[in-house]
Amino acid sequence: MRGRVLRVAVPMSLLAVAALAQTAPPATSTPTPTPAPAEAAGAPAGRAVAHSAEPPLAVSEPLPLGSIEAVAASPVTTGEEGSTRGEFVLAPIPISDPTVGSGLGLTAAYTFAKKDPDDSSPPPVVGAGGFYTSNGSWGGAAVAKLSLKQDRYRLAGAGFIGSINYDLFPAGADREGIAITQEIEFFAGEFMVGLGKRWYAGAVATWADTEVHREDADDNVEGLPIPRDRLDSTLVGLGLTVERDSRDSMFYPTTGSRLQFVANHNDTSFGGDFTYTKTWLIYSKYLTLSDPVVLAIQGGGCHASEGGPFYSLCLFGTRNLLRGYTVGQYLDRWMVAAQAEGRWRFANRWIATGFAGVGVVEPALPRWAETDSLPAAGVGLHWIAAPENLITVRAEYAIGEGGQHGFYVAIGQAF
């Protein structure tokens, strides 16, 4: 494979900063999170730092934890149009998260060279990642994306297996959580067809198996605010995905936009244990303000119908909407968020960013004037690890409401 380039994605200075960063738990002044809806009649409601078992492939999200997403999800992204050189990116990812503790992940991705220089379709991409943290959480993922017939068809596949230790917060509890373990196996496939004028539509199929139990004993479920029949479950879903993508690059867009719609329906008739639908709608716009400065704007929302397990709800902070919050601290059936980010390429291999946004999480369709909003803001520093495809490694710090904050290290742009 001609033109292969080997890059070690994180310089020592960036690793040193990331290794020293520690994300502290939210201060006691943190506002009370939105309680999750009750799972069944008479069952206590719960809010959880939870792990979604059915992410669509349209957006990188094998796990709803910012630092772990960087390890397991980053290779999903595809390369820049017009590239005729293969590139390999290998990145150790430090993890510091109040949910799972500190640890280290490793992610690798390879974008294949294209034989035809006039082929404008994204190059094929394969990747894998894994992580381990101080509280015993671990996981691994493998992903692949392929475009065929001058980008007429798009294929994607992903798999994840892991065991995550975290706290489940019963509704009304103020900082007191129940330590649980959630074991996850997840597989998904996606097929999309080009409809012309940069529109794509297709289907996504997902399968997930998850087991929830207390950390101290596998058979001890006393005190968990979850019905027993929902502790161990299988999810099988079929969904519709629609996308319009006019970005000039999939790694570092400077113009164009991207619209994503995914509706994934899980059903007992497919062989799963629950019947519910989870829907995402996300729109991103990119503007070049000057040669080195790009403005990225994004708005999106999520809706989860009744009938699913607690981890099927809309988790605030997933899909990088927004950064600065512990994922799962706020969750409910509706979530809406908007953010903007300025990106300044001040040197050949370096980019500085600043971002801000606001969101809401509610049991019914949010009305901005009638609900408490959750603002966030932060700054970041990116190093261009693979210049051929403008693949970056980013380190970011974000602050949310009530003293919540987070440090993130990931591959690629946040959106």
* Whole-number tally of structural domains: 1
Largest sheet: 18 strands, mixed
Instruction: Report, as a whole number of angstroms, the end-to-end distance.
Output: 30 Å
Radius of gyration: 20 Å
User: How many strand elements?
Assistant: 20
CATH class: Mainly Beta
Give the class from helix and strand content and strand pairing. mainly beta
CATH topology term: Porin
Number of helices: 2
Overall geometry: globular
Report the CATH architecture: Beta Barrel
Low-confidence stretches at least 5 residues in length (pLDDT < 50)? 1-83
Q: What percentage of the residues does DSSP assign to strands (E)? A: over 45%
Q: What is the average per-residue confidence, as pLDDT, rounded to a whole number?
A: 74
- Elements, N to C (H/E): EHEHEEEEEEEEEEEEEEEEEE
CATH-wise, what's the superfamily?
membrane protein fhac: a member of the omp85/tpsb transporter family
Question: What does the model show?
Answer:
This protein is mainly beta and 415 residues long. It has a single domain (5-27, 45-411), classed as Beta Barrel (Porin). Helix content is 4%, strand content 52%. The protein contains 2 helices and 20 strands. It has helices at 12-20, 66-72, and strands at residues 5-8, 46-48, 87-97, 101-111, 125-133, 138-148, 153-170, 178-196, 199-214, 232-245, 256-266, 276-290, 293-304, 314-315, 331-332, 334-347, 350-362, 374-386, 391-399, 405-411. The chain has an 18-stranded mixed β-sheet that branches. Strands 14-15 form a two-stranded antiparallel sheet. It is globular.
